[in-house]
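Dear Dr. L.,

I hope this message finds you well. Following up on our conversation about the binding site, I have prepared a predicted three-dimensional model of the protein together with copper (II) ion. For your records, I am including the exact sequence and ligand specification that went into the calculation, followed by the structure tokens. Please feel free to forward this to your student if that is useful.
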Amino acid sequence: MTTRHSHFAPSPTRRRFIAGAGAMAAFALTPAPGTAAPSRRDYRLIPAAATLPLVGAGQPPTALWCFNGSVPGPEIRVRLGERLRVAVDNRLGRDTTVHWHGLRIANAMDGVPGLTQKPIAAGAGFVYEFTPPDAGTFWYHPHVATSEQLGRGLYGVVIVDEPSPIAVDRDVVWVLDDWRLTREAAVHESFGNLRDASHAGRIGNTVTINGRVPDTFAVRAGEHVRLRLVNTANARIFTLTFEGHAPQIIALDGQPVAPHAPEGGRVVVAPAQRVDLVVDMAGDPDSRHRVIDSRDPRRPFRLVDLVYDRAPPLHASPLDAPVRLAANRLPEPDLATARRHDIVLAGGAMGRMRSAILDGARTDIREMVARGKAWSINDVAAHAMAMTPLATMQRGRTQLLRIRNDTVWPHPMHLHGFHFRLLSRNGAPVAQRPWLDTVLMERGETVEVAFVADNPGDWLFHCHVLEHVEAGMLAVFRVT
Ligand code: C2O
Ligand code: CU
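The resulting structure of the complex is given below.
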């Protein structure tokens, strides 16, 4: 078993267990040599305070909250078909939970306090156990006071490996985060303020990759790198350009897409989203290339430099190896019989919303603001995770959501428990209809998404700008 002191590595113990029929079916795709039953991987997560050199370069270390003493927390990695058991031991001194973002698992394992489980009290524990149904890049984070708990560093990545991974030279994760720090490199205490809540959220002043302010990323000419981008920021949207390179997108939110170049060469990663790239390191030995963020075109910044060593190219460019991932098995929406839902996001600074239903009563915007609320979904400003469902969905039936962003702010809208196909944006069909769990909606946009409601339970639908959630931008879908 894992000991309390083993921080990073999964337990080497891989125990057999009695598999359910579903797990057996999944495992049948990936027979491990010499094993008849699927294995299980055990992890222990310990949320607690820790002090880490986030900024480095002569700056003081930063007091954080994180899993197992590191930011990001331990990488949790299983093969498709393997079972995962994660024991959480809460040493944070306050309530928490762990939500498995993008993993289509049973409702009781979803980690939403008051909706799917009781919060894990200080000093208490909880065991999450499930078999991830999809290969891909996912992540985990608390779902209690999420603005503050994520904003102080509580998150980590979950990777579910494909039965036959694509051939690349390196498989690299870049967890992108954005921090609001003081001059002394301390986490700024300005959590829960209404300005962030009613504007763009807690935008920070310090961007990290894998918990460090980056400078260079060492590469070798000709190598093919699978680069898994995960945006764990509270509010910052990244728009990345790899100067001198032509990355191919191979998966979005963990789900494979036909490899393609990002529009205009810009890789957009909104809060909670994942983008898997394959990058052909086509630069010359000993060269240097910038990765630029240009979300705000007036203020682009250099995220990191790709720095080539002197070694001769590992392969001839351009990239010619097949990099298409096999699709996961998701139920295909049947649009002909879909139940339709119209969803309107309203509120925020400079918005048109004048009132909303708060705690069951029509409430004027001033009164809402006085109570910390700034947003509504279908006229309701949510106050807690447990609430009257916005819609009740028949299990197994296709649901088509038409979502309109009637605000002047972007919102990455996330649905728990499902991936949906993105069908259209502003009336125009979307190429490939990708499966997503979080769709970025720019100001004024309308999208249509569809999914089969095959997973019973109460599921959150919310903006992943975490300050917006706390100010009312969430709803519940009930699948029965
Ligand atoms: Cu990352 Cu409620 O989600
Ligand atoms: Cu939002």
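In brief: The pocket of CU-O-CU linkage (ligand 1) is lined by residues 99, 101, 141, 143, 272, 414, 416, 460, 462, 464 (CB under 6 Å).

With kind regards,
A. P.
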